[in-house]
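Task card 7
Instruction: Convert sequence to structure tokens.
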Amino acid sequence: MDFPTSCPACGSENRVEFADNSVHDVTCAQCGARYCVFLRKQKFEVLFDLGTRALMDGYAREAVASFSAALERFMEFYVRASTLERAAGTDTDFGAALAALEGTWRHVASQSERQLGMFALAYLLREGREPDFLTPRGLGTDFRNRVIHRGSLPTRAEVEAYAAAVFALIDRVLTELGPGAAHAELAQEQAFAAHVAALPDGVTVVFEEHPGMFRARRFGAPAPQPKSPKPATGGRPVNDAQAFQTALFRRALEERGPQLERFKGQAMRRGS
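Output:
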């Protein structure tokens, strides 16, 4: 998957593949100018947006893999943010705290169950209560395993329900994290700064912040609010948890959808 970026020298559009570290070294196809794009976006945000793009394109099964990966990477983001937040309240140097965190994470980097355990403990230490949402039903574990490991072909409605549940969980915990998220974002900024320092002369630096679905929720319109506990026309009550999750996801998709359509449309025109 890629995204459009404009050359700072001639203004031409170049499409760039998402990089794992959010650092993109680009050579303009039109004028040959070199520039480096730093995408201020966490990996879980990129993965979730890729899932929405796959879903909008009709690739329901592929979308599940991206949504599932987004949830796992968000748990890693939470562990990093909460750990660095705790270190900020001590005399520990940020670099030393980050190095200790990186070294510790290496012990669990290839084991999802251990990462889940680290997240559960980090949540308990920060919030002072059990992460009661970490249940197979709350995480959609059975659905995920059926699709990813057993080759089940899900319907779009099933994937939308799974995406809504993942979105609601991340949105809830990200809201609880609040300003604490800035500590993990600072780590990304430091990595960017190190790359900038190593760039050769003549390379233009470009910072971009794409308004992903979670940033639209954090800095944009509020969540959809239930109008009444009982709908006048019958059917599900509006305070039903699944209905609310779906409404929240669709609201965010509406906010993000136009840009995703622009990305797709430009890619199609470029390939025609």
